[in-house]
């Protein structure tokens, strides 16, 4: 399956993790993977995102927000080039753990004609980008907590 999933446990309450994860105006201050994001976090709206996987030039996407469940999850669907060539559905999920801890899960399911080829070429870099974002979110939340 063409899916990349990563997760991290954060020593901070779920609402604080959600607040930072959805504070798009400040992504550039802490997020090495999604270096810029703008738009409204509401179902049906478009976001304007610049992704910077390690060792790449980066890429701009303009995905559609498909789900927003405050404090628990948000998702978007986007594509590179033309729909059906290389499409992705990205999800951020938060799970409340004991002792004011939170598990953040970041996944993307890739589809399209070129998905296997593109993932073969840059899948490792995308995973590293997810992990870099996860650990940066963890550091920033724990620093504030």
Automatic annotation (TrEMBL):
Gene3D superfamilies: 3.30.530.20. It holds the Pfam family Polyketide_cyc2. InterPro entries: Polyketide_cyclase/dehydratase (IPR019587), START-like_dom_sf (IPR023393). This is Polyketide cyclase / dehydrase and lipid transport. It comes from Methanolobus profundi.
